[in-house]
Design goal:
Blueprint (H helix, E strand, L loop, with lengths): L1 E9 L8 E11 L7 E3 L2 E10 L6 E10 L5 E7 L5 E10 L2 E6 L4 E3 L3 E5 L5 E5 L10 E8 L3 E8 L8 H4 L8
Parallel strand pairs: 2-13
Antiparallel strand pairs: 1-2, 3-4, 4-5, 5-10, 5-11, 6-9, 6-12, 7-8, 7-11, 12-13
Length: about 180
């Protein structure tokens, strides 16, 4: 845990108007590839990202979040300084048509619950990616929880056609 002054524009609870944080806050910073990362009773693991091919400047982050706390929490915002905007999206198929909708009021994290983000389902959408992110590099991510606080970590960028490594190795990863 370290103290850090931050001044960053992020999409807050799905609103399109950015909020500027200009404060000193406690931030847990971790650099382990794919996790697990811990912030109090919140654990993030099985994290990875992929960037769309062809210069579209979009990508997605997939991961699992565990709330081991006796109280509910709310994931208020997700940010990456490698993207112009970030948002939590939920993918659905309605009448045979795939849709993707942002979650405008944050993501509830029930007490003793888990949220799984996977391709074709819930994920963190990255748009306006800066520079050319390459396979094998690490993508910085910040999650802001209402109760737990902020967690900074980096996730590996995998090839676009990669199968979900968490599904491939389910039962073999860390079980916090």
């Amino acid at each position: 845990m370290k103290l850090r002054a931050t001044r960053r524009t992020i999409l807050f609870m799905g609103f399109s108007a950015p909020i500027i944080f200009d404060s000193i806050q406690a931030v847990a910073t971790e650099t382990k590839a794919s996790g697990p990362w811990k912030l109090g009773d919140v654990i993030v693991e099985q994290a990875w990202a992929r960037v769309a091919p062809g210069g579209s400047r979009t990508g997605a982050v997939y991961l699992t979040i565990h709330n081991k706390s006796a109280t509910d929490d709310l994931l208020l915002a997700v940010d990456s300084n490698a993207a112009k905007t970030t948002a939590i999206h939920e993918s659905r198929i309605v009448d045979g048509v795939a849709t993707m909708e942002p979650l405008p009021m944050g993501l509830p994290m029930p007490s003793h619950g888990e949220v799984v983000m996977r391709p074709g389902a819930m994920h963190i959408m990255l748009t306006g990616l800066s520079g050319a992110l390459k396979v094998g590099e690490m993508l910085p991510v910040r999650m802001v929880f209402q109760e737990a606080g902020s967690l900074d970590f980096e996730v590996p960028i995998l090839p676009f056609n990669t199968d979900d490594p968490a599904v491939k190795h389910s039962g073999h990863g860390a079980n916090p």
